[in-house]
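=== RUN LOG ===
request id: a7f3
mode: sequence -> structure
chains: 1
length: 494
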Amino acid sequence: MTPSCALGLGAGKSAPMQRVTMSSSMTWLIGVASMAVYAGCVDAGPPPAQIDPAFIESNLLTDDQVKLTNEVNADLGGKIVYLGNEVQVASAAPGEKVEVIHYWRVIEGPGEQWRVFSHLQGAGGDWANVDYSPMRVGYGPDKWKAGDLIRDPQTFHVPKTWQSPFVEVRVGLYPKGAQSPSDRMPIVTGPSDRESRVIAARIDVRKPSSGKKASGGGQGGDVSSYQILKTDVAITIDGRADEPAWKKAPESPTFVTAEGSPEMRGHTRARLLWDEQFLYAFITVEDRDIFNQYREPDSPMWKEDVVELFIDADGNGQGYVELQVNPHNAQFDSWFGKTRREGGDISFAAQMKSAVTVKGSVDERGDSDTGWDVEIAIPLAAVKGKDSTMAVNVPPAVGDTWRLNVVRIDGKTGEKQLAASSWSQITYADFHAVGRMLQVVFADADGNTGKSGQGDTTDKAGEAQGQLSDERLKEIQEKTIRAIQQRAAAGLAK
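=== RESULT ===
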């Protein structure tokens, strides 16, 4: 491992704070020297999870072990039969966990290129990708053999932003690298839609219990949006949130552990500000064992403790930046001109400024730390990446909206798998998760966005009576179009 500049302390010793700052020019100089080494480096995501062989064996069944509460019997390409499932709940509120146990019968092995997908589908454009399950990682379709009878337990959360009164679980098979629904394995018989998805189950969505809001976003616990307050006073990037503007900025809820990730230990929260030149982020990380061996710009620092920002400024799902800072204050920046599938361009330089305050040590595994804070100033023009024609105001106008997310990755001594959490919940299979980004609204210093918000009461009253206003219909249509565009752009159409 590359030695760190931080002072290593033994377990149980008091840990002094350390502050590291890095200017954009220093980042650029070091980055040039290391570019040849890391030219092929892209964020490949977490390492594959290790699934216990005993777990896999316990989910390869005989006929008398199948317990269906919802029989489907859909034929996929004459090779696979989706028998049905058990749904463990009759209804769920946004943010709540749901378990569905799928059952598959293999008539003929589909081949090594095939994968299982699961989509959540609702009315009005509500949609989510929830592919992960332990069996799909440990014993996926690439390993399926004729005669297999597979139990596939899957747990997911109803997205906190879900508006539809129901969730339909739709499943199917797609070949790795597929771009279109037409590439999926066709549904020969059984309940399905026009996108070659088996309609597997339907779950009612109820409103959260009185007094309990689905947490996750910003003000009022609303994950769907966050108001970024403007600061009229310059922010000093020193790893400390001691300016009055930071004290006024709303704090995010505690980051949510990614679906399929090991549980995150230690809370993470974030705040955002802006002015005419920069978007500012301050992220507070609780961490009892801080470690990251990487100190060079654009190194694979996502393999250990790091925070990441993903910004899709025009919100179209194509063209976004990925920015990272680790406890050594090393930086990573990459431009994704289309989607993650096409890979990132690390020759892109965001010219961001950052500073880190470490409450403990960085290069001592197994000692006793408290956490670390990172303060970042991102030039507003950087969010366009290498697309100077991107339709984004720089600086933003009050009321403008962007899409972004903040992700924390954490490794623990003796554990092979990293843990991941984020402001707006992601899956462990995709930290970028363009379709799950938080919407942020640029406000003035008093929180005004220029949006009156009037008309909601009238529209909702009309919906309650089964009548939609023209304005509401247009809103639903636009939301549906955006959801389709995001799915196609993010490569989730499969």
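=== NOTES ===
The CA atoms of residues 231 and 245 lie 6 Å apart.
The two ends are 39 Å apart (CA to CA).
=== END ===
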